[in-house]
Design brief:
about 220 residues, alpha+beta, 2 domains, three-stranded antiparallel beta sheet, 10 strands, about 20% helix, about 20% strand
Length: about 220
Amino acid sequence: MVPRSWQKGAPTCDGHDHRILWLKDLYRGDEIRVAPFGGHGLPCRREWLELTGFFRDRHGHRRMVAPALLRVLAQVQRHFGGRQLHLMSGYRAADDPQALNSYHQVARAADVWLDGIENRDLFEYCRTLQRAGENLGCGLYPAGTHVHVDVRSRATIWVDLSGYGDGAIYIPNPEAWLEAHLIGDNYICRSATITFAGRAARPDGAVRGSDPNGSRCLPTRRSGC
């Protein structure tokens, strides 16, 4: 879906904005590396179309990606030294367009991770951008492999302890949970053995005893959760 206003109104890239987006899709395995921004941080026609195609869902549906989301992702990438962003989920077409329940369904969200960067660090940088005035949604999934980032009208955070395929298990007070589960302190995940508040968990990820929320951290292909 390409709005008519965009066809004539989007800028052409003139080379003045050198911010890069370098992405790899988890499921398809393809990559894109573009400098998508023209004047005033707006995406250029060709590059915007290319990124919109890259963010398509697994059924090929697409919607123009929110420019604000592209700017945030470019800033995240620059902050972490230009590492490639892995895209787990971008746009997801709604089954019922009249019953939207996710920012993915309006192309304003991305589930991402970076090689060599703990997801908690990525999540905390999302929160740093919030404190700098960005209206973002920042979601941490300790049992998963990604961080959710979206652009919205009011900043918010959440922590979901569920594993993939399970129903959501949202922490009622994410700020308190994050304070109690600091990186390198009370909440450390490793590929084979998981340490939680000084106790070792079974390799299958079942943590017992010390977590009042009954959280689990599943081993993943990455070094951390």
